[in-house]
Amino acid sequence: QVQLVESGGDSVQPGGSLKLSCAVSGFTSDHLRIGWFRQVPGNNREAVACLSTRLDSRYYLDSVRGRFTISRDSEKKNTVNLEMNNLRFEDTGVYYCTTVASIGVYWCYADNNWGQGTRVTVSS
Question: What are the strands, taking DSSP E only, across 8-106?
């Protein structure tokens, strides 16, 4: 069974940076298909960034493109990182990583495997 554990959430000021990590276990393939979603109260979870290592394909939410980077850790092969730069107030939320059912440049659909989430708060 796939398990995902997120870490790295914190409180930062606007313009700051954070790196979130998702440690994945139970995957039967060397290739990972992992996404980062975020949720704020009252809203559905939205896909922020997704990665397919087999396809070398990435999806980014328009509002984070150019500021966030999703990548597989070069040393910990079962870890997918989300580097977030130039953070904005609207990036606040609980960030979850999940296995991804389908990914393309313009879409990312989650499976039903979720981590427990890590909170990111952007405030001054």
Answer: 11-12, 18-25, 33-39, 46-52, 57-60, 68-72, 79-84, 93-104
